[in-house]
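Reviewers of the previous submission asked for a worked example of the structure-prediction workflow described in the proposal, so we include one complete record here. The input consisted solely of the amino acid sequence. No template or homolog information was supplied to the procedure at any stage.
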Amino acid sequence: SELLSGKERGRLKSLAKTRPVDLKVGKKGITDNLLSEIRSILEDEPLFKLKLSPEKSMRLEQIEQLENELPISLIAMVGKTASFSKTAS
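From that input alone, the workflow returned the following structure tokens.
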């Protein structure tokens, strides 16, 4: 996957800061339904924001799972909220 330049990453981080949370990971975790919701957001948007599990270890697993399943990379994580950007495929 292509890595973002520092400038681009900074620009995306500041966009993500003001962006409302797009989706929440529910009790069932990362489901096919959630993945398809994210895919549809990514069709129109270069980034999205996701509210993750309250447990830190779970959050890290969820981020890894998302990055494996989708063409995205983590830009920023603040508390339980993670911002991702679409990677160049």
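The CA atoms of residues 49 and 83 lie 4 Å apart. We consider this example representative of the routine output the project will generate in years two and three.
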